[in-house]
Write a structure and sequence with these properties.
Layout: H1 4-10, E1 16-21, E2 30-34, H2 38-49, E3 52-56, E4 59-63, H3 68-75, E5 76-78, H4 89-96, H5 101-114, H6 121-132
Length: about 140
């Protein structure tokens, strides 16, 4: 057994869901959808708080850029070889940005769920406690 740091480094804690079908895109194909590591998810969350403000004679315009296509591109794998469907992230974003908003949003919500971002703090603590079982003191 290594140090705690080494054990954390080796932990396989990123959740995934296999055999996801998207028949509207590729009938019969199966995908793996993964949660994102903390750094990627935090970068996404931070991007939501950045707003562009433009003053004009008619008022103020605020805009928030959606990055759902980017999140999906980072989390979508081919089940046959477990390689990213979009290894070129920019190309993946360009392609997914032109696909059905409903499908991309559904995949985004799955990534969000697998990244444990759809749970509040209490739910996360309860899940962690359940993972440790009764042997903790």
């Amino acid at each position: 057994m290594g140090s705690l740091k080494d054990q954390i480094r080796k932990a396989q804690d990123i959740k995934h869901e296999d055999d996801v079908e998207i028949p509207e895109w590729v009938p019969g194909a199966r995908f793996r959808v993964t949660g994102l590591p903390s750094g990627d998810w935090e970068a996404y969350q931070n991007s939501l708080t950045k707003m562009t403000r433009r003053d004009s004679a008619n008022g103020v315009e605020l805009s928030v850029k959606s990055r759902k296509a980017e999140i999906v591109a980072k989390a979508l794998y081919d089940m046959e070889d477990l390689q990213l469907v979009f290894p070129d992230l920019r190309e993946g974003i360009a392609i997914l940005s032109k696909r059905s908003a409903g499908i991309v949003n559904g995949l985004f919500e799955l990534v969000r769920h697998l990244s444990d971002d759809d749970k509040d703090f209490t739910q996360k603590v309860q899940a962690a406690e359940g993972d440790f079982g009764d042997g903790q003191s």
